[in-house]
Specification:
- The chain has about 120 residues and is an alpha+beta fold.
- It is about 20% helix and about 40% strand.
- The chain has two helices and eight strands.
- The protein has a four-stranded antiparallel sheet with strand order 1-2-3-4. Strands 5-6-7-8 form a four-stranded antiparallel sheet.
- Strand 6 and strand 7 form a beta hairpin.
- It is globular and about 35 Å long.
């Protein structure tokens, strides 16, 4: 994802999602992850892709359906994030690394790199 577009997407997400509750963590296709979020009367579906050739983060309009049985990393995310709240979303040092912070049983940080040169997702 181009840095200019990523900045705009992150600004939009940062204005919209803080305070949202994580209802579900859904594993999509190979390197895809969805966070089902709820804030007020609205559900949001945040899509994160760790695909090296086309990493991205944005909202989608349809409720995701998992395509696989969650395992490993996705189970850990599900365990730690479900029931938590989004504290904030931003970029680290103006680079293509998005930081999502959550309050769960303790503070948690989730990083998503939107650069093909980096390892795409950290928790």
């Amino acid at each position: 994802m181009d840095l200019g577009i990523l900045v705009k997407v992150i600004e939009e997400l940062a204005a919209l999602l803080p305070g949202a509750r994580v209802d579900k963590v859904v594993q999509g296709a190979d390197h895809d992850l969805f966070l089902v979020l709820h804030k007020g009367q609205t559900n949001y579906y945040l899509f994160l892709s760790a695909e090296r050739a086309f990493p991205r983060i944005h909202l989608v309009s349809r409720k995701p359906s998992g395509t696989r049985v969650a395992a490993g990393f996705f189970l850990s995310l599900k365990k730690h994030l479900t029931g938590g709240r989004v504290d904030g979303i931003g970029l680290i040092n103006g680079d293509r690394v998005a930081e999502l912070t959550f309050t769960t049983r303790g503070p948690s940080t989730f990083l998503s790199s939107n650069s093909p040169e980096r390892t795409p997702i950290f928790f």
